[in-house]
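Hi F.,

I've been meaning to write this up properly since the lab meeting, where we talked about keeping a consistent format for the predictions we share between groups. The idea is simple: the sequence comes first, exactly as it goes in, then the structure tokens exactly as they come out, then a line or two of notes. No screenshots and no reformatting. I'm using this chain as the first example so we have something concrete to point to.
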Amino acid sequence: MDAIGSLTPASSVESPDIRLFCDNDDAGPGKRWQLVPDIEDASIPVTAQNCRKSPQDQQWWDHINKLYREPGDTGCQDKTVDTFAYTFDIRVKGEKAAGQNINREVIVVCAID
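Output, unedited:
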């Protein structure tokens, strides 16, 4: 924790190599983690849409840091294990990640009950 405390704060979310969050991976409307939107494509069956999948199969993304989680990964919300922190490495790349540091690492500190 001392090493984290000694890091230099960045002036914007786009520039730092390391991004630290203490938000317990809150998810949903208005939160950092959001359900990946369904694809508007008539050739994709409605049952295949992300919003209709079971929670363990849904895909979520961090719209601030442009990261994805593995389907079913709930980060700090997983109450089956005592997890102190998470890192996420499925980064959005290319044009969809414009303005993002390509080497970004996101660390989330979890609250332990």
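Notes:
Helices lie at 2-5.
The mean pLDDT is 79.

If this format works for you, I'll send the rest the same way.

G.
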